[in-house]
Amino acid sequence: MMRKFIRYYRPHLPLFTLDFGCALITALMDLVFPFVVRLMIDEVIPSRNLNLIFMISGGLLVFFIIRSLLQYIVDYWGHVLGIRMEYHMRKDLFQHLQKLSFNYFDNTRTGHVMSRLVNDLNEISELAHHGPEDLFIALVTLTGSFLIMLSIHWQLTLITFMLIPVVMTFTILKNKRMQEAFRNMRRKLADINAQVEDSISGVRVVKSFTNEAYEEEKFKEGNDGFRLSKEKALKVMAEFFAGVNFFTNAINLLVITFGGLFIYQGTMTMGEMVGFLLYVSMFLQPMRKLTILVENYQKGMAGFHRFVETLELEPDIKDDPDAMEMTEAAGEIEFHDVTFSYNNREHVLNHISFRVSPGETVALVGPSGGGKTTLCHLIPRFYEVETGAITIDQRDIRSYTQASLRRNIGIVQQDVFLFSGTVRENIAYANLNASEDDIIMAARLANAHEFITGLEKGYDTYIGERGVMLSGGQKQRLSIARMFLKNPPILILDEATSALDNETEKLIQQSLAALSKQRTTLVIAHRLATIKNADRIMVLTDEGIVEEGTHETLMKQQGIYARLYEAQFSQIPTVVA
Ligand code: ADP
Ligand code: MG
C-alpha cells in the first residue's frame, strides 16, 4: 500500500524536494534563535556594546525575513503539491468510475462514491504533503532541542524530562478520546442531514398524511443526539487543552525553580536559563504535532485504501481483446436461449429465445416485474447474459466493442434524465458535434420545437437544477429529440409513454411512430395504441415468452394477453396515432 502511495509523489518529485528541503531548513533555523537570546543576555548586553546589539538585531531581522520566505514556500508549494496529487487521484478515480458496469452502481450508494471522490481524497492529500514534512520537522526539532538542552545543563534537562512521559501519555490518551468524540459527532450530524433530506424531499407525503408532528419528534431525536455528542466532544476538548496548558506551565515552573537554584549554585547563567525555557517550549510543540500526525496518517491511509480498492475494481463487462467495431447495423436482433439473474439471485429471464427482423417493430407486454426492462438492458450489454447469447446481425454482441454496439442502439425510458444545462446542450448530448440545424430538425421531429421556442430563452433556456421545470411530456420529447439526433438503427422504447396525459401522449405517439420507422424497434407498451402499431406482440412472463402474434390473433387465443388486455388496456381511452 505504501509503495502505491509513494508512486503518486513521483511526477512531483522536484516540488516535493523543494517543499521538504525548505521545511527542514526552517526547522534548523528555529533552533538558532534561543541560542542568540542566550548570547545576548549573557555576553552582549552586559558588555554594553550598543553597536553589537544593533548588528545582531539587524542580522536577526534578515534571518527572520529569510525564515518567512521559506515558510511561504513550505505553506504554498507544500499545499500545491498536495492538491496536485489529489487532482491526479481524483482524475484516475473518475476515469475508472466511468468504466465500471451497471452492476457496481446498482450496489453502491451515490453518497459513498461522492465521499470517496471528495472527503477521502482530501484527507489523503493532507497526509501526502503534511505527513513527511511534519514528521521530519518534528524529529529535527525534538532531537535538536533535546541535544542543545543537554549541552546547556544536563541535570536540569533530566529533571524537566521526568514530566515528559506524563505529558505524552496524557496527550495521547486525551487525543484519542477527542477524536472518538468528534467522529461520533460527525456521524450524528450525517444522521441529521439524512433526516432533513428525507423529510424535505418527502414533504408531500408528510403533509398528505399530516405527519408533521411525527417528523418533528423524529427530528428532535436526531437534533438531541447531535447536541449531546457535540457537548461531549467539547468537554473532552476543553479537558485536553486545560491539561496541556497545565503541563506546559508545570514544566516551565520546574525550569525556573531548579534553574534558579542552579544559577545560585553558579552552574548556570541567566541567559542559559532563558534559552532553556525557549527550547523546552520548542520541544513540546512537535509532540502535539506528532499525535495529530498519527491520527492523520490513520485517516489518510484508510482513505487511500478505499481509493485503491475502487481503482482496482475490474469492470464486470470488458471488451474482448479482438472485439470488432459495429458499423451501421442492419438491425436484426436474436435471443438464443438467454438466461439471466442479477448477482446470481433468482432468475429474472429463463431460456428466452426470439428473433426481431431488421426494421420490424415488436411490442413486449407482460406483468410488472416480469423482466421486460431487464431484457432491454441486455441488448446494449449493460448486463451480461448468464447463459445463451444475443446476436445482432447474426454476430454475438460480445464480439463487438461496447462503444460501437451502444452507438447503434437508442433507448428511450420512462424516467428521462436531463443534465443541468441548456435545452440545446441536452439535445446535443446525443451528438456533441451536431449543428444548430440538426438540433432544430431533431426537435421538430420530436414535436418539441414548438414548446422550446415558447420558452423564455428558447434553446438557450437553462433546465435542471435552478432552471425551468419541464413537464413529464416535455422532458420525454427532449429525450426523443436526442434519439432523432442519435439516429440509431435499433430503438428500444421502455414504457416511454406510460406517465403521460392523453393530449401529450398523442404528440409523443406521433413522434415515436416517426422515430421507429425504418428502425428495428422493441417497444414495451402500456397503451393499446402503441401495441396496435406493432408488427408483432410478445408476452413475457416468469415462464418466458408465452404468447406471440398480432393483437387479433392473441385476443382470439383467450390467453394471458387477452386477460392482460382486459385488465390493463381496455379502460384507457384509445389514442389513435
Ligand atoms: P419489468 O420491466 O417487466 O417490470 P424488470 O426487468 O424491471 O421488470 O424487473 C424484473 C425483476 O428484476 C424484478 O423482480 C426486479 O425486482 C428485479 N430487478 C430489476 N432491476 C434490478 C437490479 N438492478 N438489481 C437487482 N434486481 C433487479
Ligand atoms: Mg420495466
From TrEMBL:
Compartments where located: Cell membrane
UniProtKB keywords: ATP-binding, Membrane, Nucleotide-binding, Transmembrane, Transmembrane helix
Bilayer-crossing regions: 20-41, 53-74, 158-175, 236-256
The ABC transporter domain, residue ranges: 333-567
InterPro entries found in the cross-reference section: AAA+_ATPase (IPR003593), ABC1_TM_dom (IPR011527), ABC1_TM_sf (IPR036640), ABC_transporter-like_ATP-bd (IPR003439), ABC_transporter-like_CS (IPR017871), P-loop_NTPase (IPR027417), Type_1_exporter (IPR039421)
Main location: membrane
Database matches in Pfam families: ABC_membrane, ABC_tran
Single GO MF descriptor: ATP binding
Annotated ABC transmembrane type-1 domain residues: 20-299
Iron-sulfur keyword on record: no
Record Gene3D superfamilies: ABC transporter type 1, transmembrane domain, P-loop containing nucleotide triphosphate hydrolases
Topology of this chain in the membrane: Multi-pass membrane protein
Name of this protein: ABC transporter ATP-binding protein
Annotated source species: Anoxynatronum sibiricum
